[in-house]
Every structure is written in structure tokens, then in C-alpha cells.
Amino acid sequence: MTDDLKKLVTAGKLTQVQFDKLSTVPVGTYVTHKSWGFGQVKGHDFVTAQIIIDFTDKKAHPMQLAYAADTLAVLHANHIQVKQATDAAGLRKLAEKDLAKGQSGNQKKSDVHYTG
After folding, report:
1. Cβ-count burial 62-72 (b if 16+ within 10 Å, e if not)
2. For the chain, what is the mean pLDDT?
3. DSSP E strands: which ranges in the chain?
């Protein structure tokens, strides 16, 4: 994959910054997009300079690689959306365990993390 991306940089179809980002997005990577939401990379087409993503409501959606590099956010394996997609039962058990822990009064202030 890296060699194909380097060819696109050489051809002027990608910037070095876009190359750096896309080189960390192999098939199977989970991503999010501000309009299309959660998805998983299903393939790359280096001839047409596209990435193929299965979004929740847009399966096999092609995106230009440059646009994808500029607009997609990569989600790490421990991200809650990835856990929901890959291990919903495990995530449910974790939530139940955390709920029980909070109800038992054993929850410490340091156990609670707020974002936003």
C-alpha cells in the first residue's frame, strides 16, 4: 500500500501530509466522517485514487484518497464505536459492571471521566 501511495505523491495527486495520514489507514481500519458517520475501510483503488468505505448508511462508498485524508478521523481499537461494532456483548458487560460498581458505592471520583 505504501508504494502505491508514494506513486500518487510523486504524480502530484497527494501531498506528503495526506500520504502520512493514509499510510495509517489499511483495510479494516475504523473511521468516522462528519457527514457520513462511522465506517470501516474495505479497500483501496490506487488506479482511480479512491478508498472504499462501508459507512453505516452508505455501503461500499468510494472517496477520493485526498479528500479521505483531509476529512476522515481514524478510530483506535478501544474507541466505543469500534467496541460496539466488534464486541457489542463485551461492551454491554463492561457497562453493566461499571453500573454495578457505581451503584455499590465503590466508585471513586477518579473513576469518572467527563469529556466535552
Report:
1. ebebbebbeeb
2. 87
3. 30-33, 37-45, 50-55, 61-64, 73-75
pLDDT tens for each residue of 56-81: 999 999 999 999 999 999 999 888 88
Provide the 10 A C-beta neighbour count for residue 96.
Answer: 10
pLDDT digits (tens, 9 = 90+) for 7-37: 999 999 999 999 999 999 999 999 999 999 9
Confidence of residue 97 (pLDDT cuts 50, 70, 90): confident
| CATH number belonging to the domain at 2-76, selected among 3.40.190.10, 3.10.450.60, 2.30.30.30, 3.30.70.420 | 2.30.30.30
Contact criterion met (CB below 8 Å) for 8 and 14 = yes
User: In the beta sheet, which residues pair with residue 55?
Assistant: 39
Report domain extents, the chain: 2-76
Say how far apart CA 39 and CA 77 lie, in whole Å: 13
